[in-house]
Design a protein that fits this description.
Distance between the termini: 48 Å
Protein name: ABC-2 type transport system ATP-binding protein
Strand order of the largest sheet: 6-7-8-3-9-10
Helix content: 25-40%
Order of helices and strands: HEEEHEEEHHHEHEHEEHH
Bound molecules: adenosine-5'-triphosphate
GO molecular function: ATP binding; ATP hydrolysis activity
Oligomer: single chain
Structural class: alpha/beta
Pfam family, one: ABC_tran
Keywords: ATP-binding, Nucleotide-binding
Largest sheet: 6 strands, mixed
Strand content: 15-25%
Protein backbone atom coordinates (compact mmCIF):
# COMPACT_ATOMS: atom_id res chain seq x y z
CA UNK A 1 0.00 0.00 0.00
CA UNK A 2 1.49 3.34 -1.00
CA UNK A 3 1.39 6.53 1.02
CA UNK A 4 -1.73 7.97 -0.70
CA UNK A 5 -3.94 4.91 -0.20
CA UNK A 6 -2.75 4.61 3.40
CA UNK A 7 -4.63 7.83 4.23
CA UNK A 8 -8.14 6.82 5.25
CA UNK A 9 -11.02 8.08 3.13
CA UNK A 10 -12.92 8.96 6.31
CA UNK A 11 -11.46 9.64 9.70
CA UNK A 12 -14.10 10.66 12.22
CA UNK A 13 -12.70 11.23 15.67
CA UNK A 14 -14.71 11.46 18.88
CA UNK A 15 -17.74 13.09 17.29
CA UNK A 16 -20.42 14.53 19.51
CA UNK A 17 -23.60 16.16 18.22
CA UNK A 18 -26.32 17.66 20.36
CA UNK A 19 -29.69 19.09 19.48
CA UNK A 20 -30.71 21.23 22.45
CA UNK A 21 -29.95 19.19 25.54
CA UNK A 22 -30.25 15.94 23.62
CA UNK A 23 -27.02 14.15 22.66
CA UNK A 24 -27.73 12.56 19.30
CA UNK A 25 -24.19 11.34 18.58
CA UNK A 26 -22.10 10.37 21.55
CA UNK A 27 -18.34 10.04 21.06
CA UNK A 28 -18.27 8.33 17.66
CA UNK A 29 -14.88 7.34 16.29
CA UNK A 30 -14.81 5.73 12.88
CA UNK A 31 -12.09 5.20 10.29
CA UNK A 32 -12.97 4.02 6.80
CA UNK A 33 -10.00 3.02 4.63
CA UNK A 34 -9.95 3.79 0.92
CA UNK A 35 -11.78 1.27 -1.22
CA UNK A 36 -14.00 0.01 1.58
CA UNK A 37 -17.74 -0.54 1.28
CA UNK A 38 -18.86 0.53 4.72
CA UNK A 39 -22.43 0.17 5.99
CA UNK A 40 -24.13 2.13 8.75
CA UNK A 41 -26.97 0.24 10.33
CA UNK A 42 -29.21 1.34 13.16
CA UNK A 43 -32.81 1.81 14.21
CA UNK A 44 -34.76 4.80 13.01
CA UNK A 45 -33.62 7.89 14.88
CA UNK A 46 -30.36 6.32 16.06
CA UNK A 47 -28.23 9.03 14.43
CA UNK A 48 -27.14 7.63 11.04
CA UNK A 49 -28.15 10.64 8.96
CA UNK A 50 -26.70 13.01 11.54
CA UNK A 51 -23.37 11.18 11.31
CA UNK A 52 -23.48 11.32 7.50
CA UNK A 53 -24.12 15.06 7.68
CA UNK A 54 -21.10 15.56 9.92
CA UNK A 55 -18.93 13.49 7.59
CA UNK A 56 -19.96 15.53 4.54
CA UNK A 57 -19.62 18.83 6.40
CA UNK A 58 -23.30 19.68 5.94
CA UNK A 59 -23.58 19.98 9.69
CA UNK A 60 -20.96 20.75 12.33
CA UNK A 61 -20.09 18.59 15.30
CA UNK A 62 -20.20 20.01 18.83
CA UNK A 63 -17.00 18.15 19.56
CA UNK A 64 -14.57 15.98 17.63
CA UNK A 65 -13.39 16.27 14.05
CA UNK A 66 -13.73 14.77 10.61
CA UNK A 67 -11.04 14.37 7.98
CA UNK A 68 -11.62 13.15 4.44
CA UNK A 69 -8.47 11.88 2.72
CA UNK A 70 -6.43 13.60 5.41
CA UNK A 71 -8.13 16.99 4.88
CA UNK A 72 -10.10 18.58 7.70
CA UNK A 73 -13.82 19.09 7.03
CA UNK A 74 -15.73 21.14 6.21
CA UNK A 75 -13.76 22.53 3.28
CA UNK A 76 -15.10 23.84 0.00
CA UNK A 77 -12.48 22.17 -2.16
CA UNK A 78 -13.47 18.78 -0.73
CA UNK A 79 -16.90 19.01 -2.37
CA UNK A 80 -15.34 17.62 -5.56
CA UNK A 81 -14.07 14.61 -3.65
CA UNK A 82 -17.35 13.04 -2.68
CA UNK A 83 -20.76 12.34 -4.12
CA UNK A 84 -23.62 12.64 -1.69
CA UNK A 85 -27.05 11.13 -1.99
CA UNK A 86 -29.31 12.49 0.71
CA UNK A 87 -32.33 10.71 2.13
CA UNK A 88 -34.71 13.17 0.51
CA UNK A 89 -34.19 13.80 -3.17
CA UNK A 90 -33.00 17.29 -4.12
CA UNK A 91 -34.42 17.30 -7.64
CA UNK A 92 -35.92 20.04 -9.74
CA UNK A 93 -39.39 18.71 -10.44
CA UNK A 94 -40.02 20.75 -13.57
CA UNK A 95 -36.71 19.71 -15.17
CA UNK A 96 -36.28 16.41 -16.98
CA UNK A 97 -34.03 13.70 -15.62
CA UNK A 98 -31.35 14.66 -18.11
CA UNK A 99 -31.66 18.37 -17.26
CA UNK A 100 -31.36 17.60 -13.55
CA UNK A 101 -28.19 15.63 -14.23
CA UNK A 102 -26.81 18.35 -16.50
CA UNK A 103 -27.49 20.97 -13.84
CA UNK A 104 -25.72 19.07 -11.07
CA UNK A 105 -22.96 17.98 -13.44
CA UNK A 106 -22.27 21.61 -14.32
CA UNK A 107 -21.91 22.42 -10.61
CA UNK A 108 -19.05 19.94 -10.63
CA UNK A 109 -17.50 21.61 -13.64
CA UNK A 110 -18.58 18.97 -16.16
CA UNK A 111 -19.50 20.16 -19.63
CA UNK A 112 -19.76 19.16 -23.28
CA UNK A 113 -18.98 15.62 -24.36
CA UNK A 114 -17.69 14.53 -20.98
CA UNK A 115 -20.94 15.62 -19.29
CA UNK A 116 -23.05 13.96 -22.00
CA UNK A 117 -21.18 10.67 -21.72
CA UNK A 118 -21.27 10.69 -17.90
CA UNK A 119 -25.04 11.30 -18.03
CA UNK A 120 -25.46 8.34 -20.37
CA UNK A 121 -23.36 5.96 -18.29
CA UNK A 122 -24.88 6.99 -14.95
CA UNK A 123 -28.40 6.72 -16.41
CA UNK A 124 -27.61 3.28 -17.78
CA UNK A 125 -26.39 2.13 -14.41
CA UNK A 126 -29.63 3.05 -12.67
CA UNK A 127 -31.80 1.97 -15.61
CA UNK A 128 -33.18 5.40 -16.44
CA UNK A 129 -31.97 5.72 -20.02
CA UNK A 130 -35.50 5.52 -21.42
CA UNK A 131 -36.86 8.11 -18.99
CA UNK A 132 -34.29 10.87 -19.27
CA UNK A 133 -36.59 13.22 -21.18
CA UNK A 134 -39.46 13.04 -18.70
CA UNK A 135 -39.81 15.70 -16.01
CA UNK A 136 -38.79 14.55 -12.53
CA UNK A 137 -42.35 15.32 -11.40
CA UNK A 138 -43.48 12.36 -13.53
CA UNK A 139 -41.00 9.96 -11.88
CA UNK A 140 -42.05 7.40 -9.29
CA UNK A 141 -40.38 7.49 -5.86
CA UNK A 142 -37.96 4.73 -6.87
CA UNK A 143 -37.08 6.53 -10.12
CA UNK A 144 -36.33 9.70 -8.18
CA UNK A 145 -34.00 7.74 -5.91
CA UNK A 146 -32.28 6.28 -8.96
CA UNK A 147 -31.89 9.72 -10.49
CA UNK A 148 -30.38 11.01 -7.24
CA UNK A 149 -27.94 8.11 -7.23
CA UNK A 150 -26.97 8.81 -10.83
CA UNK A 151 -26.34 12.45 -9.89
CA UNK A 152 -24.11 11.41 -6.98
CA UNK A 153 -22.04 9.29 -9.41
CA UNK A 154 -21.74 11.87 -12.20
CA UNK A 155 -18.42 13.45 -11.28
CA UNK A 156 -16.85 10.05 -10.51
CA UNK A 157 -16.04 10.92 -6.89
CA UNK A 158 -13.44 9.06 -4.82
CA UNK A 159 -15.96 8.78 -2.00
CA UNK A 160 -19.67 8.04 -2.22
CA UNK A 161 -21.89 8.90 0.72
CA UNK A 162 -25.28 7.28 0.29
CA UNK A 163 -28.12 7.74 2.75
CA UNK A 164 -30.56 4.87 2.15
CA UNK A 165 -29.94 4.80 -1.60
CA UNK A 166 -32.17 1.86 -2.46
CA UNK A 167 -35.40 2.78 -0.68
CA UNK A 168 -38.26 2.27 -3.12
CA UNK A 169 -36.07 0.45 -5.64
CA UNK A 170 -37.16 -3.03 -6.71
CA UNK A 171 -35.03 -6.06 -5.70
CA UNK A 172 -33.68 -6.76 -9.19
CA UNK A 173 -32.40 -3.25 -9.73
CA UNK A 174 -31.19 -3.10 -6.13
CA UNK A 175 -28.99 -6.08 -6.86
CA UNK A 176 -27.62 -4.43 -10.01
CA UNK A 177 -26.87 -1.26 -8.07
CA UNK A 178 -25.08 -3.17 -5.31
CA UNK A 179 -23.03 -5.06 -7.88
CA UNK A 180 -22.03 -1.71 -9.34
CA UNK A 181 -21.18 -0.29 -5.91
CA UNK A 182 -18.92 -3.30 -5.38
CA UNK A 183 -17.31 -2.76 -8.77
CA UNK A 184 -16.64 0.86 -7.84
CA UNK A 185 -14.84 -0.15 -4.63
CA UNK A 186 -12.73 -2.52 -6.69
CA UNK A 187 -11.59 0.56 -8.60
CA UNK A 188 -10.63 2.18 -5.30
CA UNK A 189 -13.78 4.21 -4.63
CA UNK A 190 -14.82 4.33 -0.99
CA UNK A 191 -18.50 4.00 -0.16
CA UNK A 192 -20.35 4.69 3.06
CA UNK A 193 -23.99 3.71 2.94
CA UNK A 194 -26.83 3.71 5.42
CA UNK A 195 -29.36 0.95 5.05
CA UNK A 196 -32.23 -0.80 6.74
CA UNK A 197 -32.02 -3.75 4.36
CA UNK A 198 -30.28 -6.70 5.96
CA UNK A 199 -29.12 -8.45 2.83
CA UNK A 200 -27.52 -5.17 1.77
CA UNK A 201 -25.78 -4.87 5.14
CA UNK A 202 -24.32 -8.34 4.62
CA UNK A 203 -22.71 -7.16 1.36
CA UNK A 204 -20.63 -4.52 3.15
CA UNK A 205 -16.95 -5.06 3.99
CA UNK A 206 -17.58 -3.67 7.46
CA UNK A 207 -20.58 -2.45 9.37
CA UNK A 208 -21.07 0.12 12.06
CA UNK A 209 -24.11 -0.50 14.24
CA UNK A 210 -25.48 2.67 15.81
CA UNK A 211 -27.89 2.71 18.68
CA UNK A 212 -29.02 5.82 20.54
CA UNK A 213 -26.12 7.79 19.08
CA UNK A 214 -23.46 5.29 20.13
CA UNK A 215 -21.44 3.02 17.89
CA UNK A 216 -22.17 -0.32 19.54
CA UNK A 217 -20.47 -2.59 17.01
CA UNK A 218 -17.87 -2.00 14.33
CA UNK A 219 -16.62 -4.99 12.40
CA UNK A 220 -17.14 -7.25 9.42
CA UNK A 221 -20.67 -8.68 9.12
CA UNK A 222 -19.28 -12.15 9.90
CA UNK A 223 -17.51 -10.98 13.06
CA UNK A 224 -20.59 -9.08 14.25
CA UNK A 225 -22.75 -12.17 13.76
CA UNK A 226 -20.24 -14.37 15.57
CA UNK A 227 -19.80 -11.90 18.41
CA UNK A 228 -23.56 -11.62 18.93
CA UNK A 229 -23.79 -15.43 18.98
CA UNK A 230 -26.43 -15.50 16.25
CA UNK A 231 -26.70 -16.63 12.64
CA UNK A 232 -27.63 -13.59 10.60
CA UNK A 233 -27.09 -9.82 10.57
CA UNK A 234 -30.82 -9.43 11.13
CA UNK A 235 -30.57 -11.42 14.37
CA UNK A 236 -27.43 -9.52 15.38
CA UNK A 237 -29.19 -6.24 14.65
CA UNK A 238 -32.14 -7.27 16.83
CA UNK A 239 -29.87 -8.60 19.59
CA UNK A 240 -27.56 -5.59 19.64
CA UNK A 241 -29.49 -2.80 18.05
CA UNK A 242 -33.13 -2.83 19.10
CA UNK A 243 -34.24 0.14 21.11
CA UNK A 244 -37.52 1.05 22.75
CA UNK A 245 -38.06 3.76 20.12
CA UNK A 246 -38.00 1.12 17.44
CA UNK A 247 -40.80 -0.98 18.91
CA UNK A 248 -43.45 1.69 19.18
N1 LIG B 1 -32.16 19.36 13.11
C1 LIG B 1 -32.54 18.60 14.14
N2 LIG B 1 -33.04 19.16 15.26
C2 LIG B 1 -33.42 18.41 16.32
N3 LIG B 1 -33.32 17.07 16.37
C3 LIG B 1 -32.84 16.45 15.28
C4 LIG B 1 -32.42 17.17 14.12
N4 LIG B 1 -31.95 16.27 13.21
C5 LIG B 1 -32.08 15.06 13.77
N5 LIG B 1 -32.60 15.15 15.02
C6 LIG B 1 -32.85 14.04 15.94
O1 LIG B 1 -31.66 13.31 16.04
C7 LIG B 1 -31.96 11.91 16.14
C8 LIG B 1 -31.16 11.17 15.09
O2 LIG B 1 -31.73 11.47 13.81
P1 LIG B 1 -31.15 10.86 12.48
O3 LIG B 1 -31.92 11.47 11.36
O4 LIG B 1 -29.68 11.02 12.47
O5 LIG B 1 -31.51 9.34 12.64
P2 LIG B 1 -31.41 8.13 11.60
O6 LIG B 1 -30.71 7.02 12.30
O7 LIG B 1 -30.83 8.63 10.34
O8 LIG B 1 -32.93 7.75 11.38
P3 LIG B 1 -33.69 7.12 10.09
O9 LIG B 1 -33.19 5.73 9.92
O10 LIG B 1 -35.13 7.17 10.48
O11 LIG B 1 -33.36 8.00 8.93
C9 LIG B 1 -33.46 11.76 16.02
O12 LIG B 1 -34.01 11.62 17.30
C10 LIG B 1 -33.88 13.06 15.39
O13 LIG B 1 -35.18 13.40 15.80
Amino acid sequence: MDESTAVPAIDAIRLVKRFGDRTVLDDITLTVPQGELFGLLGPSGSGKTTLIKLITGIDRADAGKVELFGEPMPQLKMLQTFGYMAQSDALYQELTGKENMAFYGSLYGLAGKVLASRIQSAALLVNLTDHLDKPASAYSGGMKRRLSLAIALLHEPQLLVLDEPTVGIDPVLRKTIWNELRALTQKGVTIIVTTHVMDEAEKCDRLGLIRDGKLIALNTPEAIIEHAGVHTIEEAFIALGSSKEDHT
